[in-house]
Amino acid sequence: MLALALPAGLSAQSPQCQFRGTPEALTERPSPLDSVLISLGGREAKLCYGRPTVRGRAMIGGQVPYGTPWEMGANEPTTLHLPFPARIGSVDLAPGSYSLYAIPGADDWTVVVNGNPDRWGVPISAEVRAADLGSFSVTPQVSARPVETLSFSFRPNGPSSGALVYEWERLTFSIPVVRR
Q: What's the pLDDT at 164?
């Protein structure tokens, strides 16, 4: 889904993704664009991201070195658009738009919530990190099957909670999401 920028005060409608470029240029990118709806308590939030593909490369721990901040996608930052207050991992957020990035490690990852959804994906510089709002740890599990193209999905756990599920290469982890 391609759309214009979402204003800071989100409406009751489903949030729209913001991707830079003409619709024609966006369809020509090697990493397809995607989004995931997060339905909680009768409202919808949205995660927007680019979907890089492995293509025979070692990505996490290779092209994406351990200990280096990474946008958890391709091109634009991975963005979360919330029309309601929520807790992502252990970070409490007001309604608004945020970017997410990760610092992968060999055993655990740090997922960071950043207050600037309008930045470019990488590099994640000291200037970008100055807008960090909080972070939390996740422990990836080895998945039963390889996932060629990065994917996020949403798994509800009840009317007001669920998890964003990350899958890529042979790694998967969940990010808890709770509507407050």
A: 98
- Show the domain range for 137: 23-179
Asked, for residue 10, whether it belongs to a domain, the answer is no
Residue 104 lies in a domain: yes
Is 76 domain-assigned?
yes
Tell whether 123 is covered by a domain: yes
Tokens of 37: 């709806």
pLDDT tens-place string over residues 18-60? 777 787 877 778 788 899 999 999 999 999 999 999 999 999 9
Contact present, 111 and 89 (Cβ < 8 Å) = yes
Mean confidence (pLDDT) of the chain: 90
Total domains, the chain: 1
Alpha-carbon distance of 170 to 151, in angstroms, equals: 12
pLDDT tens string 84-95: 999 999 999 999
